[in-house]
Amino acid sequence: MRYLRSFILILVITALAACNSSERQPAKAEKPGSVKATKAFVKEFGPAPSVEKGTAYAFVIYFPSAKQPGKVLPFPFFSFDEASLKKVALAKLIGGLGDLKSYQGEIAQPFPAGARLLDLQQSGGSVTAVFSKELAAARTDLGLVNAVVLTLKQFEGVGQVALQVEGAPATTDKQAQKADESVVLPLAPPRLLSVTGMKEKGAATVEEVDAFFDRPVQIKELRLLDADGKPFEGEIFHSVFDMAGVLKPKNPAKFSAGLPVQVRWNVTDKIGRNSSGQTEMMLEVREH
């Protein structure tokens, strides 16, 4: 199974098998993996993709829009750690999406530098998100409030959300309670995010080249070509969670950071939105 590695969230947990020293136990057939998706995920991105092993969780993080203040843009995320879903979702929301050229100028970053989530307190269906004091100046930003509230309310058992800044009382204001699906912007067709070569730490060459998209997609066509338009040789696979097309290159030594790579694609997301095109990107190389 090929693991999706970029800004997309994956927390890997390892199961340790117990053994009986006094007698040999017969091998048991391994259960197929499953993905449990929130209703918000299914609405925005369709049925969750499958995994070979374990239980994964698919959810949405709503990022504030830069073009339409108060509105939010949904992005898909995945995790294998059920216990920390809410905290991880808010941590990623605070951190933002980084420098994604495909969304340049579209995602706002209302969280001030140094702002962080200190605690999540839940009592019944009410959740209070406690932030560090750096958030005080941005506490009333409508996009920030809507993003926090909708990200948390998608999870089962959360009916009301309050925001609290360190050292101040919690407030369940009207602004937070008005956050609903009406502030979610409709999604455009899938977008190509980056082309990244992945290699083992310390390795001389890449082991795979990933063309990342902004959501799970079905790949109808994906070709990676050099600057002269000649296709790179190798097999193409889907990544785990269907977020990328993965080239297993026949000649991995050709791929180095900054290499111009032309990407030709034709993909469809799980709701039927189609995207096709060709563009050139500079190859990023990352170790894992």
From TrEMBL:
<protein>
    <submittedName>
        <fullName>Germane superfamily lipoprotein, putative</fullName>
    </submittedName>
</protein>
<keyword id="KW-0732">Signal</keyword>
<feature type="domain" description="GerMN">
    <location>
        <begin position="86"/>
        <end position="174"/>
    </location>
</feature>
<dbReference type="InterPro" id="IPR019606">
    <property type="entry name" value="GerMN"/>
</dbReference>
<dbReference type="Pfam" id="PF10646">
    <property type="entry name" value="Germane"/>
</dbReference>
<keyword id="KW-0449">Lipoprotein</keyword>
<feature type="signal peptide">
    <location>
        <begin position="1"/>
        <end position="17"/>
    </location>
</feature>
